[in-house]
Amino acid sequence: MKSLRLSLAICLSIVFTLEAIFCIPANAQSSESEKSQDQPTVSERIQRVENGLLPPFQIKGESTAKMNISDRMKHYKVPGISVAVINNGKIEWQRSYGVKEAGKNDPVSVDTMFQAASISKPIAAMAALKMVQDGKLSLDEDVNKKLVSWKCRKMNLPRKRK
Description:
By secondary structure, the protein is an alpha+beta fold. It has helices spanning 2-22, 42-51, 69-76, 120-133; strands at residues 80-87, 90-98. The chain starts with a helix and ends in a 29-residue tail after the last helix. Mean pLDDT is 79; it is low at 3-12 and 18-35.
């Protein structure tokens, strides 16, 4: 049961990470030239992350209820998490929520070590699919046309039989 909770905590962390990367409303993203003094403060962005979580899928035309971190932790029975938001290559803010172990009082801190598992592959896959969606990458294109510092070797795969 403890490993299931740990797995759920890892999945929840991945969801928060992916939401932070890919679920920011389009009007929240702007170029340097469009930035003005009315940009949200760090405090406002923290509130948006803490209270603006989106469900894993949305149905077009239906309203989407936003969720908060505390409710999601209760729903998935996750005792504690730590969140760090990276903006322009630097940690902009970090917060911790809950306790290290269910039934105990030892709080999670931003320095608490979590077993993160291998999250680089799903994050890289999501980033690649976002690039496909934006028309910057094609899944059918030879990957070596995009690689610069190294290349994938040609694979001699059997041809499909008709």
